[in-house]
Structures are given as C-alpha cells and as structure tokens.
Amino acid sequence: MAGLRADCAGPVLTPEDPSYDEVRRVWNAMHLREPAVIVRCTRTADVRAALRFAAAAGLPVTVRGGGHNVAGTAVADGAVLIDLSLMRQVVVEPGERVAHAQGGVLLRDVDAATTPHGLACPAGVVSHTGLAGLALGGGYGWLARKWGLTCDHVLAAEVVLADGSVVETAQHPDLLWALRGGGGNFGVVTRFTLRLREAGPVHHRAGLYPFDDAVAALDQYARFAEAQGPDQHAVGCLKIASDEDWIPVGLRRTPVLALTSVWLGEPADGPAANAALFEPLRPAVSRERVLSYAQLQALGDHSEPHGHRYYTKSCYLGDLPSAGLAAACADIRSPWSAIDFEYLRGAILDLPDAESAFPGRDAPYICTVSAHWLDPAQDAENIAWARASIAGVAEPGRGGAYVNYLQDEPDGKVLDVYGDVRYAKLAEVKARYDPANVFRANQNIRPHSQQPV
User: Fold this and answer.
1) Quick check: is 442 in a domain?
2) What pLDDT does 451 receive?
3) Do 174 and 274 belong together in one domain?
4) N or C: which end of the chain has fewer CB within 10 A?
5) 206, 174: one domain
6) pLDDT tens digits, one per residue of 327-350
7) Are 229 and 296 in the same domain?
8) Cα–Cα distance between 94 and 112 in angstroms, integer?
C-alpha cells in the first residue's frame, strides 16, 4: 500500500481512513459496498498505478466517473475502486467547436464550460450524471433527435488499458468504435474529445393532465411526437404530482400525466410549436418558460437526488401502449417513482453502424420505469412494481434495451442488446485490448477466449 500511495498524486483510501465511508457512496443508495482500496485519481498516471497494484494484488477493478449508474457497477466489495471524480477539468476550443473533458467530469461541468460560448455537447437530462458512463453507453437527451447521441460526439479519447499502457484512439479506430456505445469494457477513459453544437436559449412548456385524461392525452402525444421535426423534442412522464406552487391543489399528490415540449429552433416559433402538443385536449395546467441550455439540463436534478434508492427497468417500443402505461401508473408504489417515455429517431438514426457500437438506433420509443424510494424495507415492493410495469408494456419479440439502464438482468441480455454480429465484433475488440476481462464490472462483453461454449 505504501508503494501505491507513493505512486499516486491523489489520495489512496482504505476502510480505516476517515473519508472512506463518504467516498465509497454512489448515487443509488441500494449499492453501499466496501472496496478494498479507493484510488482517487488526479492524473492518468494514478490510473496506471492503480491498475498495476490491482494486478499485483490479484484484486478486481471497478471504475467510477460520476457514480450515477443505476446498477451501481462503480463499486464492488473487495475491489480496487479507480475513482475519477477528482478529474473534472473541461477545456473548450470554441473556434473549433471542440471540448476536452477529463474522465470524471459531470454533465454540469461540461455545460458550465460550453454554454458561455453558445455551445453544448448533447447529453443526458440530469446534470449530476457523469459524462463517461453516459457517453460510453450511448447518451439520450434533449438534443439527441436534432444532433445525435452523446457517444456520436466522442471524437477521440485517451484510454488506459488493462496492462497500464496509455493509448490515443487516433491510432486505434476499432477502439473508438467500441467506446461509442460499448460501455466501460475496454479501458479507463481519462480524457474525451467532444464535438460541440450550437445551443442557445430554448422554449420549454410543460403541462399536466389528470389521470382520467391520461389515455386520451397519451394518444395525442403519440400523434404529435411521431410528426415532430428535428427542432422539437417532446417527452412524457406518468407520476405522482408534486406540491410545486404552479400545480393546482386538486392535482397535487395525485397520479398525473406530464407532457413536456422543448423547441430548439427559431425563438419566435417556440410558443406556437410547443402549444401544438397540447391541442385539442388541453392540460389542466401548464407552464411555459425560456431557458438557457444549462438550465434545461438541470431541470431533472431535483427528481433524482443522491442517496435515495432506485431500481430501473427499460424497453424499446414500436408504438406507445397508452392503456398499459396508465395501468402501471395506477399501481405506482412511491410518490417519487415515474414512468418516462419519449419518441426517438431523428438524428439518432444518422450515424452508420461502422462509426459506432451503439445498438437500437431505429427504435421508435423508449420507455423507462423508475422506482424511487427511501426505506430499505420497501425494496421488494418497489422492485416488483418496476418489473411488473415494464412487463406490462413491453412488446413480445422486440429485443434490445438501452445499455445504460440495464441492471439485474439474466445471462444473455447483453448479447440480446447488441445482437450477434455487433456483439461478435465487440468481443474481438475486447480480446485485443482487455483479453483477461479486467474491466468486467459493467454490462460485460467477454473476450472471445471467455465466451461460453
């Protein structure tokens, strides 16, 4: 341990250290695990030292960027945790529309650096999410239909491989392909180079429908969403209404359908474009605002705080099952749980398979059932609700899933997600860069030598 501490510029923690308990925590409180060692990296050399130490000690390895993954794969009992959360630098080249972001940055770090230049990297909808996990698994968000996924904007990366060597993807195009959607299977990304897009103020309108109107409003949403252009992104959520001041007293703490439309085009067109989502069946209440992109990105933060318990199930859909979604909401078990859905496609379809490992680009809809509660004694009922709800809306025979939302899955699910051809190519890349499967604390792609016979 003394040698590891001498080799690292950042702190090295063991269970005896006062800050150990705090540092080992991740966003989802269901995963309170006890790593043997936590290496709080501040530079690429620290990552290399941690990997060398783990190999010499015969210990497994996990990697944390933002620690926001619902499956909690960033931490494991008895492992060496390579913690990138102190590596938060973002450097923007506005003239080139490029940003260089270290492996531990959060989405809010990227937004804070790029928004003053009128630029953004398309990313997820909760600003305390880590960039690395999101980008390596895909990256849906408000700009995805207009510009594509987060992984589509990874131009290059610095990667520490399992043997401690450091490579740049400019010399390894097969590795870059795998990193764009193949998850954390291939190495530790210590720096991303990101393509940026123009992102000015946006028009945002949200409306709430009482539960009795949910099925009709869901059908209205589907008609609107499937016809919307690339400058618009409409999403929906079935949930228990909060106590916010703008919500009428009669709707608070009752099941509702929330529809949201964001207009990304010419500002003058925003009010009319957003209003179309809510016609002819009008919501009980709505709220319209003009937001900066950074403000838009932070809207979801309050609904997913650190330290709560989460369990998520997700599936792709060809059509929106209005009655099934409403039935799942009627049985909701926690005031914080939600059923989210959105129409995808648009620019998500644009990147050819040869450029990215991300699967499922042609999926029309994604539906995500997010159970969210506080009391560990309520684990079983909330997990059961999430499983039953997704089973009630999933389409028989439609495979695939969004890899960033996978957890608690049966053997073979990762193969189902990627499909035979894409998985075989990923396994080849895995065998080239991580033949011993050191990076297996993830939705694991095994090298060819470790595939089941």
Assistant:
1) no
2) 64
3) no
4) C
5) no
6) 999 999 999 999 999 999 999 998
7) yes
8) 13
Which of 65-69, 94-98, 406-410 has the lowest average pLDDT?
406-410
Q: How far apart are CA 299 and CA 374, in angstroms?
A: 21
Q: Give tens-digit pLDDT for 41-84.
A: 999 999 999 999 999 999 999 999 999 999 999 999 999 999 99
Q: Are residues 27 and 133 in the same domain?
A: no
440 assigned to some structural domain: no
Same domain assignment for residues 416 and 401: no
- The dihedrals phi and psi of 41, each to the nearest 5 degrees, come to -75, 140
Tokens of 143: 């700009």
Q: What are phi and psi of 193, to 5 degrees?
A: -110, 120
Average pLDDT for the chain: 95
Tokens of 49: 């030292």
The answer to whether residue 245 is domain-embedded is: yes
Q: Which CATH number goes with the domain that contains 395?
A: 3.40.462.20
Residue numbers of the domain that contains 299: 202-405
pLDDT in tens, 178-195: 999 999 999 999 999 999
pLDDT in tens, 263-300: 999 999 999 999 999 999 999 999 999 999 999 999 98
Kindly state whether residues 164 and 219 are assigned to the same domain. no
